[in-house]
Amino acid sequence: MDSQKKFPRTFSFEFFPPRNEEGRDKLRETTQQLGQLKPKFFSVTFGAGGSTREGTYDTVKEIQALGHQAAPHISCMGTRRADILALLDSYRKIGIRHLVALRGDLPKDAPRTGDFHFANELVAYIRAETGKEFVIEVAAYPEFHPEATSAQDDIRRFVDKVKTGADSAITQYFFNADAYWRFVEDCEAQGLGVAVVPGIMPITNYKQLARFSDACGAEIPRWIRQRLEGFGDDLDSLRAFGLDVTTDLCERLLAGGAPGLHFYTLNRAAPTCTIWERLGL
Ligand SMILES: Cc1cc2nc3c(=O)[nH]c(=O)nc-3n(C[C@H](O)[C@H](O)[C@H](O)COP(=O)(O)OP(=O)(O)OC[C@H]3O[C@@H](n4cnc5c(N)ncnc54)[C@H](O)[C@@H]3O)c2cc1C
Question: Is this structure's pTM higher than 0.70?
Answer without folding.
Answer: yes
